[in-house]
Design goal:
Blueprint lengths: L1 E7 L6 H14 L4 E4 L2 E2 L2 H5 L18 H9 L5 H4 L2 E2 L6 H7 L6 H13 L3 E5 L7 E3 L2 E2 H8 L3 E5 L5 H14 L4 E9 L5 H14 L3 E5 L17
Parallel strand pairs: 1-5, 1-8, 2-5, 3-4, 8-9, 9-10
Antiparallel strand pairs: 6-7
Helix pairs in contact: 1-3, 8-9
The structure holds adenosine-5'-diphosphate (ADP) and magnesium ion (MG).
């Protein structure tokens, strides 16, 4: 069983893209791949501009939700529920989105769902929510879930100004909790990186004592054109 937990320096930094490309690579290698995301929020914003389409590809009438993109990328036949046990409309932190729905996220349910997903596959790619210190329920943060699952981390981060601080903070929090950082992935990595971007890459590798990978801009609607993204075990 190989597994990776994709976190990031925050929200909208490329976690889903990194997780999708990693899952697609594993599937292309011939593995049965499961995907898992503890909680998806912001579904209201996706359905605002068109009919629902679960298909990846040019015909998609709206941006896919994270669990839909992960399913399409991995080729897994998992249901929405199996991939993401908690799914909410408002774009809010999981603990708040759950509270707004009159619910509370149950860590045990997350552990059980992640375990079931892993049991049905040869490899699993998990995507966190926001960054490592995002609350799921009370003091149970994304970090706590990552520690319980025990997979190495891939940290998605932007290539530009501000990324050194955000990335090193994430690495410190991860290692302090006993998590192993497999790699940082700078995304989207420009075709012609500037001096700042090239310097960021080197500086994060040196100060974070970490492998820094890069992912160029991909066409999310065309998985066959995606590059390979593999994390060494
Ligand atoms: N390598 C990439 N290729 C194409 N788009 C990217 C890439 N990296 C990030 N993006 C874009 O950045 C935005 C945030 O990415 P996403 O993976 O959804 O972030 P997160 O999961 O961290 O919230 C999306 O619009 C996504 O398409
Ligand atoms: Mg995401």
């Amino acid at each position: 069983m190989s597994g990776i937990f994709v976190t990031g320096t925050g929200t909208e930094v490329g976690k889903t893209v990194v997780a999708a490309v990693a899952a697609h690579t594993l599937a292309a290698d011939g593995a049965t791949v499961a995907v898992f995301k503890p909680c998806v929020t912001g579904l209201d914003e996706l359905s605002a501009d068109g009919p629902i389409s679960g298909d990846i590809g040019p015909k998609s009438a709206r941006r896919l939700a994270d669990h839909e993109l992960l399913r399409a990328a991995s080729g897994s036949g998992q249901s929405d529920e199996e991939i993401a046990p908690y799914r909410y409309g408002p774009p809010a932190s999981p603990h708040l989105a759950a509270a707004l729905a009159g619910e509370q996220i149950d860590p045990e349910r997350l552990r059980a769902a992640a375990g079931r997903a892993a049991a049905g596959a040869e490899a699993i790619v998990c995507e966190g929510v926001g960054g490592l210190l995002v609350p799921l329920a009370g003091e149970y943060l994304v970090r706590e879930l990552a520690v319980e699952l025990g997979y190495p981390l891939a940290i998605a981060a932007g290539p530009g100004l501000g990324t050194i601080n955000h990335t090193l903070l994430t690495i410190e929090v991860a290692r302090a909790a006993g998590l192993v950082v497999a790699a940082v992935v700078l995304t989207p990595w420009p075709h012609e990186p500037s001096e700042l971007e090239r310097s960021n890459r080197k500086t994060i590798a040196a100060l974070g004592e970490v492998t820094v990978m890069t992912l160029p801009e991909v066409d999310l609607a065309a998985p066959d054109s995606w590059p390979e993204l593999r994390f060494s075990r």
